[in-house]
Amino acid sequence: MNYYEQPPINRTEVSHTVKIDNRKDLEITGVKQVDSFDNEEFLLETQMGYLIIRGQNLQLKNLDVHEGLVTIKGKVYELSYVDEHYQEKAKGFFSKLFK
Question: Cβ distance 31 to 40 under 8 Å?
Fold first, then answer.
């Protein structure tokens, strides 16, 4: 390898996973940021788009920004992704809702 050649960069993709146990323990990886949350709804920006989690008595149990890991406890009713086309509309809607 000569002086001007760069060694190959080892780029690892951050994966996005959702693990749910008995509809009450939820572990999500690949989270970029938590946009908003309360005891009935979470809005997370993930590697795969915005994820909306709806339920009852939802609690943020763990947030690791460096690893992109979020753990939520509570009764989970719904998980849904916001399509890329509708991301800005959803973000605007939720930001107005949670002001």
Answer: no
